[in-house]
Write a structure and sequence with these properties.
By secondary structure, the protein is of the alpha+beta class. The protein has 11 helices and 12 strands. Strand 9 and strand 10 form a beta hairpin. The chain binds adenosine-5'-diphosphate.
Length: 497
């Protein structure tokens, strides 16, 4: 049953409300004890009242029992004194008294019904053996008490088998006293207690409602603040320090907000950079074309020179677009990695062969040092991007007669590609930023040699997709060394650099 109620409450939206649950808990904590206290007090009163009534009656009966012996009432029940005493007692307690002799015959019945009859009941027989008995019949509302009528043998009556002072049970007094007056008092008490209880329940309900409302208020403040941010009224971090719990929720939310702001800022910066980078070649093309159009009788050589410049700018635009496409592709999920076992030595040789003509043009020597045969589970296309970008940079940012050295090595878990050059180097303060999109140390120099500022961003993304790391060490005017470390198999993970 309780299970069903809980299931029903869970289905109802209100059952999932913390305010409702608090209200119920406070109500139960107030109402249940008040019901228990009322029931306990009444029960205790009833027990105590029955006990007092029993003890009063027993005392009176003991006195009468002595009188019965004195007046020899068991043999001759004509004594008016005893008769009056019995009458008075039965009237006082609204009860019935039976005096039974040792033959179990009723000598006196205050109701006058059972005189002369024999009574065989367990209580009477036990009492004949000298045991007092008390039975409280709660249902019919009476207490049944038996008291033995005891005679102490005097010196005159003493015999050999019954010395002086022996106590002999001569009969039993069987008494029923009504507990109507106790029941009536109990009824009155119960009624008063119920009134107090109803007032208490009403107060508890009011307090529970108020407390539930007040205790839940900070959570309301949290959702109000979040809504304000959602609707765009404010961007400031929120603060609801009322409870530790609200503080934790708010801290987590502020963390999320900060992250979203950073993402939004970098997205905006990226869009601004992309627009700027794409606009520059177009502006150059426009200027070149317009200056040609503005002149009349332009010599063919000038046309050729301007058209060469225009073609260069278009090629640059094409490179930027290709790099952007590569970056967008790399930003997608890891699932897009096309993993296969790749011979890294062979792949490096192919790439170096492809890049040697550029190196030769720049008078740079490219060397490959293979310390080990490396076969790794990687995406071949992305691995080519990594190698090409690093070696291309090492050639581009080198000096005349410089060298580029590519070293391949591996241990049992990772393989490393080290690309060292003898070029211009990167200033220490710029090392942090070189992986940012469109970042270039020297913008005009980089542009001159055809850089887009996207190469290292693409490289780093590709390395991280392979769960690898990339590190750089550089000295201005002396050269730069990039070290890429990638797990040999897909099961291994390398921390981010
Ligand atoms: P870019 O297309 O301009 O080369 P990258 O993202 O590849 O863009 O590199 C970012 C910047 O880092 C470059 O503009 C350059 O200033 C610097 N850089 C990268 N590699 C080297 C290197 N080997 N030697 C010196 N500077 C380098």
């Amino acid at each position: 049953m309780a299970d069903k109620i809980i299931k029903f409450l869970k289905k109802l939206r209100i059952g999932r409300s913390l305010k409702f649950r608090l209200f119920i808990i406070i109500c139960l904590m107030g109402i249940i004890p008040s019901i228990i206290i009322r029931a306990g007090i009444l029960e205790n009163y009833e027990d105590r009242a029955v006990e007092v009534r029993t003890s009063d009656v027993q005392t009176q009966l003991k006195i009468i029992a002595n009188h019965l012996i004195t007046y020899n009432y068991l043999q001759d029940n004509s004594s008016e004194v005893i008769g009056a005493e019995l009458e008075q007692l039965s009237n006082l307690y609204n009860g019935r008294m039976l005096i039974i002799n040792s033959n179990l015959r009723v000598v006196k019945d205050t109701y006058g019904i059972s005189e002369g009859k024999t009574i065989i009941s367990e209580e009477v027989i036990r009492c004949m053996k000298g045991v007092n008995t008390v039975n409280y019949d709660e249902v019919n509302g009476f207490i049944e008490i038996t008291i033995p009528i005891i005679e102490t043998i005097s010196a005159k009556m003493a015999a050999e088998d019954m010395p002086e002072g022996t106590e002999v049970v001569r009969g039993v007094m069987l008494t029923s006293v009504s507990t109507d007056s106790i029941a009536m008092t109990l009824e009155i008490l119960n009624r008063k207690a119920l009134i107090i209880e109803y007032i208490m329940i009403f107060c508890i309900l009011a307090i529970a409602l108020l407390l539930a409302q007040v205790l839940i208020r900070p959570f309301g403040r949290v959702s109000k603040s979040i809504s304000e941010i959602k609707e765009g009224y404010t961007d400031d971090p929120i603060s609801v320090p009322d409870y530790l719990e609200t503080e934790h929720i708010v801290d987590a939310f502020n963390g999320l907000l900060k992250r979203m702001k950073t993402l939004d800022d970098s997205r905006q910066e990226f869009v601004a950079n992309v627009s700027h980078e794409l606009k520059t070649p177009i502006t150059s093309v426009k200027v070149l074309a317009e200056s040609l159009l503005a002149q009349q009788d332009v010599p063919a050589e000038l046309y050729q020179e301007f058209m060469k410049d225009i073609a260069e700018e278009i090629e640059r635009e094409d490179k930027i677009i290709n790099d952007l496409l590569a970056i967008v592709k790399l930003d997608k999920s890891v699932a897009e990695l096309n993993i296969s076992a790749v011979d890294i030595n062979e792949l490096t040789e192919i790439i170096l062969k492809r890049l040697r003509p550029i190196a030769r043009k720049n008078n740079v020597e490219v060397l490959l040092v293979s310390k080990r045969e490396v076969v790794a589970e990687v995406d071949e296309v992305k691995m080519s991007l990594i190698l090409t970008n690093l070696v291309e940079n090492a050639i581009k940012y080198n000096r005349e007669q410089g060298t580029v050295e590519v070293t391949l090595d591996a241990d049992h878990q990772f393989f490393t590609i080290q690309v060292s050059d003898t070029g211009i180097g990167i200033p220490q303060e710029c090392l942090e930023q070189i992986y940012e999109r469109f970042y270039r140390v020297d913008k005009s120099h980089s542009r001159e040699i055809g850089g887009t500022g996207l190469g290292l961003a693409i490289t780093r993304n590709a390395v991280l997709l392979h769960r690898g790391s990339i590190k750089v060490d550089s000295k201005e005017g002396e050269g730069t060394t990039f070290v890429v470390k990638i797990p040999l198999t897909r099961g291994l993970t390398q921390t981010k650099s």
